[in-house]
Amino acid sequence: MSFLSATLDRVKPSPTIAVTTKAQELKAAGRDVIGLGAGEPDFDTPENIKAAGIAAIEAGKTKYTAVDGIPELKKAICVKFKRDNGLSYEPAQVTVGTGGKQVLYNAFMATLNAGDEVVIPAPYWVSYPDMVLLAGGEPVFVEAPLETGFKITAEQLEAAITPKTKWFLFNSPSNPTGAGYSWDELKALTDVLLRHPHVWVLTDDMYEHLAYDDFKFCTPAQVEPQLIDRTLTMNGVSKAYAMTGWRIGYAAGPKALIAAIRKVQSQSTSNPCTISQWAAIEALEGTQDFIVPNNEMFVRRRDLVVSMLNDAEGIICPKPEGAFYVYPNIAGCIGKTSAAGTLISDDETFATALLEETGIAVVFGAAFGLSPNFRVSYATSDEALKEACTRIQTFCASLR
């Protein structure tokens, strides 16, 4: 009898974490490595938010709290949903977790039975399918290729839904592609969901405020209010507020679902970090003035990376609507051999050769469910991005 749970055989370690770890190891060994794998802003947490955390420590707010968040934070979240999304929730409909990842995990653990299906557009964030599998469910992938702007159609969603479908998992702007659904594109999907009342919607809105150019963010329950009673709207402070390490995610939905999520959390982590909760209140209620200049910086970096990667031989890099990722296609590189003699048979061998031969760390597309591609996070300095893209251009030019 194996000591380890058979459930672990259904999942794999996070590829994004693995790439970041490998880059750190090479850098520690003295290699000149530029990591483009981490999904976090290089900006520091704004001063007012840090001050709120310090004030919480000094005020002795360091004890256990309610399992799924202090009342003050839940109230701030309700105000945020009303202000930004036109969604009306009360505190009893809100859960706060240790990052958005825990909220998603709790929701699946609280709702999925063996054989329940979760429809997931691909490419997807690497953790989505494995969380579904850990909870006993079955991920059902709907491919959104380059040709459709990495977005699925209403017809594809309709075809993917079966009597076993429990959730439709939606993410816009997307990790890994940065693709964002317009109001009309999302309305086409919600029209499908209205025809299938047994399907719930779990929307990951973590990149809501990282929306560029003329793109306007919208969320499913906002586009189709009839879905609000079967929608869990998840968000957090990690990305827009540069608070990845503070570990605060939150969601709002029907009371019965929130109560079930609370039960799961009560027997796992209990409350999120108290200090981080008080800092998150300041993030939501305090000045939002830094978001616009930060986004302007992200737009400049996005345009730099898109331009330089499109100049690389064999690469096609579309310009995304939001987040801080690009997802270049490398079909033109497949089948070639690198200067060091590596056959580029797929996007994983491309990423491995790129790291070993040039010191550039990216995440290969198969990890996100769509190949042949790789993901670049441009949440780093202009100088690092210019150097990284130059090395990628050189690497691609050397392929034979």
Automatic annotation (TrEMBL):
Homodimer. It comes from Octadecabacter ascidiaceicola. It catalyses: L-aspartate + 2-oxoglutarate = oxaloacetate + L-glutamate. The keyword Transferase applies. Keywords: Aminotransferase, Pyridoxal phosphate, Transferase. InterPro entries: Aminotransferase_I/II_large, AspAT/PAT-like, NHTrfase_class1_PyrdxlP-BS, PyrdxlP-dep_Trfase, PyrdxlP-dep_Trfase_major, PyrdxlP-dep_Trfase_small. This is Aminotransferase. It is an enzyme of class 2 (transferase). Belongs to the class-I pyridoxal-phosphate-dependent aminotransferase family. It holds the Pfam family Aminotran_1_2. Residues 32-392 form the Aminotransferase class I/classII large domain. Transmembrane segments: none annotated. Its cofactor is pyridoxal 5'-phosphate. One of its GO terms (biological process) is amino acid metabolic process. The lineage of its organism: Bacteria, Pseudomonadati, Pseudomonadota, Alphaproteobacteria, Rhodobacterales.
